[in-house]
Amino acid sequence: MSYTRKVTYYTSSGGSSCEQQFSTVTHQSSFSSSGWVQVPQRQQQTVVQQIVQPTSATEAILSKGCETNQSSSSSPTPFDEAVLDEHNRLRAKHSASPLALDPAISRYAQEWANNIASRNVMQHRSNNRYGENIYACFGKTGVTGAEVVQSWYSEIKDYRFGESNPRNFGQVGHFTQVVWKNSKHLGVGIAKNGNNIYVVCNYDPPGNFGGQYPANVTRS
């Protein structure tokens, strides 16, 4: 049994046994036509908090600590591949081409996952060249790649297809980046500090550009 609560605010917070995810932030703050004021890049952040029962460690593909370093090899980890596979499974539902893992983007994502895990904070990277989704869970021993991506994709229930600029961007920004058609490459980073787990995904080209939603986020 779980209880879900969504709230938009501008600082991070945490707590035991909760999941948080920060929305992808638009690279063009062109929401004024839909009632949004223009804001600096990465000023607005949205958090989803969910009280959950911790998953069994045997169900999770995660044993990295903070301990934050990914393997020195450029080969993708099973967790990276699970995140990629779930992205592509869901993207196919919306006629979006598969993403490909990019080692350089994964290193970039891993650097930021290490950074925020070492500080135990939820924060977007400033001046980011890529699209970005961030997920964190607290008080859990592990998380699966599918679980992470599904948490973002679940925002589909609040998305209104066809809008040029979603008026409820703070509730749907993860979902739109996951299925954004023009994004082609994916980087995955994951780090753990105690029982706090942080996952960063970066996307190239970035998604969530104002005015481009109808072409990039389709119902099927």
UniProtKB/TrEMBL annotation:
Its main location: secreted. It is found in: Secreted. SMART domains: SCP. GO terms for cellular component: extracellular region. Keywords: Secreted. It holds the Pfam family CAP. The keyword Repeat does not apply. Residues 78-211 form the SCP domain. PANTHER family: CYSTEINE-RICH SECRETORY PROTEIN-RELATED. This is AAEL008473-PA. It comes from Aedes aegypti (Yellowfever mosquito).
